[in-house]
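cron nightly-structures :: item 1 of 1
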Amino acid sequence: MKKRIIVIALVLLALTAGYARADKIHDELMKLREKAIQLQNGGEFGFRHFTPCTEIKLFGDYKPTKAEVKKGGALLVYFEPANYFTKKEDGKYRILISEDMLVTTKDGKVLLDQKNATTLSVNSETPVMDVFFRNTVNLGGSAPGTYIFKAVIHDKLRNKTATRTLEFKITE
């Protein structure tokens, strides 16, 4: 009986030591994330990996392609907002980014103009470090030719805006 109690006590001690190590690692990671947020909040807001794709799965998991779409198909664009602002308030981490999308012909005729087409609003217990946008633009039966896709992202918490354009072709 005494040996059983000692074994149970040792197992419990080992388990709590494991939890203590996990907590310590978590605390160290949170310090690194806080530092990353400080660097990110001080950086210039913009775009990373503004890329036409055939497939988008997750953050950083996409298949780039040429900026070319068959008539009746859809343009798929992956990008990550760079240096978006993370606000820490009441123990939570807040991100608020919206996107406007515009598609024009090469000579400037507007085919699509969507304000606030996509909004990312996060209010989390822990910092969110991996943010991406997936844009799908379907122009229906638009004629073959050259078009311009323009994405405008707004960091609502820092009141900053960034713009990127992509020239793409619709083929037969």
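cron nightly-structures :: done
The CA atoms of residues 71 and 152 lie 25 Å apart.
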